[in-house]
Specification:
heterodimer; A: 425 residues; alpha+beta; twelve-stranded mixed beta sheet; 12 strands; 51% helix; 15% strand; B: 199 residues; alpha/beta; two-stranded antiparallel ribbon; 7 helices
């Protein structure tokens, strides 16, 4: 089999039949672009999840009220700080037991009332996981928590490495600037619901597009000791003075997760008078659930890509069939001159593969351009492309094209040389 | 073919003659290993080729047989040089050597200056000369020519016949199919076919 001759002939045929070739190439390239995008998204999500899980810790559980606005029913006071203390007392080996309360305030800074700000009440445990910040000043300490000190740490919003083009329109007002008035707030005093709080620290988040966390609040936000809720501030959906919005647990290792979950559920059910008005969720499972959700969209893109690629393949099949019928005489001549059947097969497979590879190349270019464009448009692009994806896609496109051309090529090789030579050119 | 039995010696110039439809081209196809006899034996250089598989027959065809067709059968998109070099590509000859040998062959048929022209840019006689050059590209021992002058004027026909004589004189076995008695006379041996039978 003479591959070089087959490739030369293939290139010549593609150039001669430009329109025919272009149509086949288009279908293949759309399929390739779509598959490439899907691949990049899948890989990106896998990497983001891995990074996120590493950051989050291996044995994370999240305890929430069963309903977001659960009220006291029977004996239960709902989820409280006391529950977190009880868990800590029962299982001192847990790496982290971090209760959080949540409220919304309308702070007054330097006599000026700003917009709504999310205030999260925390304990010192909070910073054990998901720490992505750069801190100025100091963080909340155990004394602050114990004494319900009126201190707070502001979370400064992140910038962008590459700002999406729509961001200027979406976020015309920067809530944090509203709060800070372009001043460094560390050391300043802020009035929250009529009480003076000292800003003891400021935490800068990583740029939006590089933030490895799965979910994060993007608006202006501050942290206060959890104990100030119920005393100075009111927590959202608070059923008791020490109500909490959630308790985050980290067992420290994955293998103790199931056992910890079972024991926490038993403990809290007993504390809540037999009422199961809370949910203990495996955060890893939650992330996996949300990935499964996103995977559905990816599956649709994948299906579209496959359909487009198969359509391209069918196009190639048609083109190859047409090429075989228009080149019957040529096949006869080549056979008379000493071409084996394999040479004839190679002639048509080379043309199809070359078309497929060119389609793949165009598809890769389209795919990369699409991913770049979407990355600029999205706030949290997860697409992650490796050079071998592009190479693999071109290979897949060429293989699909060759697979669809195989039958007409085989038919061509079985032509009787005498009959083929009699064919009018 | 009905009960045809013949032996052609190495170096012979044989003309197969007969009216249209008598089986001349079928006989040539059998001799050129393009077709297979339904019965009987066909020996080439003493080897029975009638039972060989397609791969073996293709190899023999490429190495030992050269074809010259009435309608030239050049590939229209290839240049004269590429047409001549094509059988060498299937014989595994390296590209540079193919081109060099094709150039020499074109020079031999008087077309050295027209190597880059496509068949459409050549006259009938020139096309047939390219066809002859191509048939010689793998240095065959047997040249089969099917009405090689059938589409040519008398001057070009004479030139082509002259070439065939030259090749024969250099030791090549030539079998030529024609219905033209004048051309048949040029051969050292004439076989006459009628209704698939040798007269």
């Amino acid at each position: 089999m003479n591959l070089a001759e087959a490739l030369r002939s293939a290139a010549r045929e593609i150039l001669i039949h430009k329109v025919r070739s272009l149509l086949s190439l288009c279908a293949i390239s759309v399929g390739t672009a779509s598959l490439l995008y899907t691949l990049a998204q899948t890989r990106g999500m896998q990497n983001a999840t891995r990074r996120n899980l590493e950051l989050m810790g291996p044995g994370v559980l999240s305890i929430h009220p069963a309903q977001s606005n659960s009220r006291i029913k029977g004996q239960s006071r709902g989820l409280t700080s006391a529950d977190a203390d009880a868990i800590r007392a029962e299982m001192p080996w847990l790496y982290m037991v971090s209760p959080t309360a949540l409220g919304w305030v309308n702070p007054v800074v330097a006599g000026k009332r700003t917009g709504w700000i999310m205030v999260t009440g925390i304990t010192t445990e909070w910073r054990k996981r998901d720490w992505v910040y750069r801190l100025r000043g100091r963080f909340l300490n155990a004394t602050d928590i114990r004494d319900a000190a009126r201190v707070c740490v502001v979370i400064e919003p992140a910038g962008w490495v590459t700002k999406p083009f729509w961001y200027e329109f979406w976020s015309s007002r920067n809530g944090f600037e509203d709060l800070s008035g372009h001043r460094d707030l560390v050391g300043a005093r802020v009035n929250l619901d009529g009480h003076e709080f000292a800003v003891v620290g400021a935490m800068r988040q990583p740029p939006h597009d590089l933030d490895p966390r799965w979910n994060f609040w993007e608006g202006p936000s501050m942290l206060v000791p959890i104990s100030v809720f119920g005393r100075y501030l009111t927590a959202e959906f608070a059923a008791a003075a020490d109500s909490v919005r959630a308790i985050r647990i980290d067992t420290g290792e994955e293998r103790t997760l199931t056992e910890a979950k079972r024991r926490i559920e038993a403990l809290l059910t007993a504390r809540h008078g037999g009422e199961k008005d809370f949910e203990v969720k495996n955060v890893r499972e939650e992330i996996e659930d949300s990935i499964r959700e996103e995977n559905k969209y990816i599956a649709v893109a994948l299906a579209l890509g496959i359909v487009a690629l198969v359509s391209g393949g069918i196009g190639i099949l048609n083109v190859t069939l047409a090429a075989v019928y228009s080149r019957v005489k040529e096949i006869g001549i080549r056979r008379a001159l000493g071409a084996h059947r394999a040479d004839v097969v190679a002639l048509f497979l080379a043309e199809a593969s070359l078309l497929g590879a060119l389609g793949g190349l165009v598809g890769v270019a389209l795919g990369v351009a699409g991913i770049e464009t979407l990355a600029r448009a999205a706030d949290h692009n997860v697409a992650d492309l490796a050079w071998y994806h592009a190479f693999g896609m071109i290979l897949i496109a060429a293989t699909v094209a060759a697979a669809f051309a195989a039958y007409p090529a085989w038919r061509a090789s079985r032509l009787d040389p005498i009959d083929a030579l009699r064919e009018e050119a | 073919m009905k009960g045809v039995s013949l032996r052609i010696e190495r170096g012979e110039f044989t003309a197969i003659m007969g009216p249209s439809g008598c089986g001349k081209s079928t006989l040539l196809s059998l001799l050129g290993l393009l077709d297979r006899p339904s019965s009987g034996r066909l020996l080439l250089d003493g080897v029975d080729v009638s039972g060989m598989d397609d791969r073996e027959r293709t190899r023999l065809r490429r190495e030992k047989i050269g074809f010259v067709f009435q309608a030239y059968n050049l590939l229209p998109r290839l240049s004269a040089l590429e047409n001549v070099a094509l059988p060498m590509a299937y014989a595994g000859v390296a590209n540079a050597e193919r081109r060099e040998r094709a150039q020499l062959l074109l020079k031999r048929v008087g077309l050295a200056g027209k190597a880059d022209r496509t068949p459409l840019e050549l006259s009938g006689g020139e096309r047939q000369r390219v066809g002859i050059a191509r048939s010689l590209s793998n240095s065959p021992s047997l040249l089969l020519a099917d009405e090689p002058t059938g589409n040519l004027d008398s001057k070009s026909s004479a030139e082509i016949l002259e070439f065939l004589h030259e090749l024969h004189a250099q030791g090549l076995t030539v079998i030529l199919v024609t219905h033209d008695a004048a051309i048949g006379k040029a051969a050292s041996r004439v076989l006459r076919l009628k209704d698939g039978l040798l007269a």
